[in-house]
Design a protein that fits this description.
The complex is a heterodimer of chains A (52) and B (725). Chain A is an all-alpha fold. Helix content of chain A is 62%, strand content 0%. Chains A and B meet through α1 and α2 of A and α2, α5 and α6 of B.
Chain lengths: 52, 725
């Protein structure tokens, strides 16, 4: 059961990392256009080089 | 509403092309926003962005497909009116939006706030659920207690943050001594936390921290969906308002000043250019022109305007520049008096109770009574307040309306999304439910079933030589009839005759010289002809008898299909118009509508609809003009096209974003299906309660059962809603 002493903090930490990542995506407007982003991936326009 | 209505007196969107005010010149890049109702795929995105980025002056253009909008960063001298033709050439319908009005919706604080709370509740419930699973699978004694304490440490701050919207709503309802859906929710969450803490402190077996968190999570998900649907509609409705820029040109000592319509005063001299809309009521002091009154009265024949004539706000100036002296501004204009009719009619609609409200009214007291009874019953039976409280909490948690909270928003989100893709905007929360009940459809004519632009009908009646002369004259004018004539003639492959010295006489027509004879194209009286009931332009060559070019109003695309589909769906279709008998009869026959009314005044329309409602019909009104606004508000549910006057759009529940009318029939169909799904969802939620509640009341419910019941019912309800797509 000593393993819990590691596992519980790790699980909490991972959960926290997930939450922080989500907060970051919200703050950087990544949910503004879900439909457009889903379609954009099909376009081959910037496949060779990234958009400047 | 008054604020929005006042912008209804706006000058035309075309005035954007007019010189900008010098005071607000910004040296930096400007933001231009365009509404693109027609885009739908990745190819559309690519084409629009390529076309826009290729345009000189555009620095960066990005399409938002979800909002069907393009945001463009451009140099200050770039104007939206230059970009719209670029897109139209590529085959996309585009309208300019006022970026000032949009910036408010761009940073969507409330939505982001809800999303954050949803995320916190989601992550916290995942972590707590992890611990709970270990407890359910057999952790005992010190381990169980530790897991419970960790759960408490996560759950308490998470709920304190995430459940705030419910706390606030419940408190505001309780303060006025009323019950809403949030009261049982808050009670369940709080009671679950209190009993769980108590149990944990006494090393008890059952703690409901995970239930309290998942409850918050599911309910927030419902709230968020609901919010998203309405926010999308609201921002798009704001977009439509942003289409009309409320500016007018005031003349001070002969100098033109562009000012906001709200700043106009009685007695001001106002210049209205051809194509512009009258911003105020007034009297013409100089100029001659023709006025299009169709938005106010539904008449399609333009009215001659000369010095001394009174004009009303909302009329459109067609040919020559007019100078007005304002006699009534702002709220005193006839436009606004008409809007008062709307306010009266609208109070009737607010009496509609939505399905969700009906459910909540039954539900909230029921749950409280049930939980109080089980508390009392167990207290009397066992004499132990801890057991009784535990069971009361279990009852509240299990009955708690996770599924009920999702039942309506999940369906309306799916339905609104589906309709939005077809170019319809659901503005009102209960619009779909009301639309599903509609059995009678009333159409306005001008601007709704017809596009409001004339179409030449008798080109073949005239000899080619005469049409050549007419074309030469027509091309010198921007009058809608001239434009339509020129278009029809050009399409027939006719070249203009060599007419010299063509001049436009505002209010009358165009005049020139052809082979030594004076030729005129214009109003009947001007060329010496008798004015008939139909819209026509007359051509006079020398002293020959004048020839009539007759016009009819072109049908809006999809109008015939919409009417047919509605009739096929068993709905009664009525045509109500302020236009003349002949014009209305012709259109009714063309579309096969047997029930039609012509020359209807705005009050008549509203009364007719009231009569129909009194007979037990549920009326769907489709209209665009100011003369329709009272009728739109009086109807059970209403639809207006995006080209409608601001006041009409405000009064209607659903706005058609594109030009096509055919989605109306689809919308009725979707609404019926959506309402069916909502009812189904309520039934599913009830079935779960019927199974789980007895378990809770007799004290058999464990946190595991609560979690299972809650999740399965919420997921079934959401999946059922998704079937609508």
């Amino acid at each position: 059961m000593e393993v819990l002493a590691y596992l519980i903090p790790i699980s909490l930490l991972l959960g926290g990392v997930g939450l922080v990542a989500f907060v970051y995506t919200v703050r950087s407007n990544q949910y503004e256009d879900p439909e457009g982003d889903a379609r954009r991936i099909l376009s081959d326009e910037w496949d060779d080089k990234p958009k400047p | 509403m008054t604020a929005q209505l006042s912008s209804g007196t706006a000058a035309c969107p075309g005035c954007l092309a007019a010189p900008a005010e010098p005071a607000r010149s910004i040296p930096e890049d400007v933001q231009i926003a365009l509404s693109l109702p027609g885009i739908h795929c990745s190819a559309c995105i690519a084409t629009v962005e390529r076309e826009l980025n290729a345009h000189p002056g555009v620095e960066n253009a990005r399409v938002n497909l979800t909002l069907k909008r393009a945001m463009i960063k451009a140099t200050p001298e770039t104007r939206a009116v230059d970009l719209i033709p670029v897109l139209e050439k590529a085959g996309f319908e585009a309208h300019e939006l006022d970026p000032g009005a949009l910036s408010a919706t761009q940073t969507d604080k409330a939505g982001r706030d809800l999303l954050m709370r949803l995320a916190v509740a989601g992550f916290a419930s995942m972590n707590v659920m992890l611990l709970s699973v270990s407890v359910w699978s057999g952790a005992t004694d010190a381990t169980r207690d530790m897991f419970h304490w960790i759960s408490a440490a996560i759950a308490l701050p998470a709920i304190a943050f995430s459940a705030q919207p419910f706390f606030a709503n419940a408190w505001s309802a309780l303060r006025v001594r009323r019950l809403n859906m949030d009261v049982p929710i808050v009670l369940a969450i709080l009671l679950a936390l209190v009993t769980s803490l108590w149990e944990t402190a006494l090393s008890g077996e059952h703690a409901y921290f995970d239930a309290a968190l998942t409850l918050t999570f599911f309910l927030l998900a419902g709230r968020y969906l609901d919010y998203r649907t309405r926010a999308a509609a609201r921002s798009a409705a704001e977009e439509l308002t942003a289409l009309e820029v409320p500016r007018a040109i005031r003349l001070v000592d002969g100098v033109e000043n562009e000012i906001a319509v709200a700043d106009l005063k009685v007695g001001d001299l106002i210049l209205v250019r051809p194509g512009g809309r009258m911003p105020v009521d007034g009297e013409i002091v100089s100029g001659q022109s023709e006025l299009d009154r169709s938005l106010l009265t539904g008449e399609t024949v333009p009215v001659f305007a000369e010095i001394g004539q009174l004009v009303s706000a909302g009329e459109v100036n067609l040919t020559g520049p007019l100078t007005l002296r304002a006699t009534a501004v702002g709220e005193d204009t006839s436009l606004h008096r008409m809007a008062d009719l709307v306010a009266i009619a609208e109070s009737g609609r607010s009496r509609y109770t939505s399905l969700a409200d009906k459910a909540a009214k039954l539900y909230a007291p029921g749950v409280h009574i049930l939980s109080a009874l089980s508390f009392l019953g167990w207290y009397i039976y066992s004499g132990d307040i801890r057991t009784a409280l535990n069971i009361a909490a279990a009852v509240l948690i299990i009955t708690c309306p996770c599924a009920l909270g999702l039942a309506v928003p999940a369906v309306t989100t799916a339905a609104s999304g589906r309709l939005f893709r077809k170019g319809m905007l659901i503005k009102h929360a209960t619009a779909l439910e009301r639309l599903s009940e509609a059995d009678t459809v009333v159409f306005d004519k001008t601007g709704t079933l017809t596009s409001g632009s004339p179409e030449l009908v008798n080109l073949g009646d005239h000899s080619r030589a005469k049409v050549e002369v007419a074309l030469a004259l027509a091309e010198a004018s921007a009058h809608p009839l001239s434009v339509a004539l020129a278009k029809a003639a050009r399409e027939a492959g006719i070249k203009p005759a060599n007419v010299r010295g063509v001049v436009e006489v505002p209010g009358y027509g165009t005049e020139g010289e052809y082979r030594g004879q004076r030729v005129r194209l214009g109003r009947a009286a001007w060329v010496g002809a008798e004015q008939g009931s139909e819209t026509s332009a007359w051509l006079a060559i020398g002293d020959h008898a004048p020839l009539a070019f007759r016009f009819s109003d072109a049908l809006r695309p999809g109008a015939a299909e919409a009417v047919d589909a509605l009739r096929a769906a068993g709905k009664h279709v009525v045509l109500m118009s302020g236009d003349s008998q002949g014009a209305v009869r012709a259109l009714a026959e063309k579309l096969g509508i047997t029930d039609w009314i012509a020359e209807a005044l705005p009050q008549d329309k509203a009364h007719r609809i009231q009569d129909l409602s009194d007979k037990g019909h549920h009326v769907l009104m489709v209209g665009d003009g100011l003369n329709d606004t009272a009728a739109l508000a009086a109807a059970h549910v209403s639809i207006s096209p995006a080209s409608a006057l601001d006041a009409a759009r405000v009064a209607s529940d659903i706005v058609l974003l594109g030009n096509d009318l055919s989605p109306i029939a689809d919308a009725c169909d979707t609404a019926v299906k959506a309402t069916k799904r909502i009812r189904e969802n309520f039934r599913i939620a009830t079935v779960y309660n019927v199974i789980a509640v007895p378990l809770a009341v007799i004290g058999l419910a464990t946190p595991l059962i609560a979690a299972l019941a809650m999740s399965t019912s919420s997921i079934t309800v959401s999946l059922n809603a998704l079937r609508l797509r």
